[in-house]
Design a protein that fits this description.
Elements: H1 2-16, H2 30-38, H3 44-52
Length: 55
């Protein structure tokens, strides 16, 4: 029973860490890093632009 639950959570975690930015839909390595640091799936470029222009 626990094997089925573990696989379910493993699949959802893997889907989140796909390195695709939510803003520009580009694939970048920094997306996972920013997700861990800030909780948002943004690439370096989008993170800087959101910091400077927060609208």
């Amino acid at each position: 029973m626990t094997d089925k639950i573990d696989k379910k959570y493993l699949n959802t975690d893997t889907e989140e860490l796909n390195n695709i930015c939510d803003e520009c839909n580009e694939e970048d390595e920094s997306v996972t890093q920013n997700l861990i640091l800030t909780g948002f799936k943004l690439c370096k470029s989008c993170r800087v632009s959101k910091t400077i222009f927060p609208l």
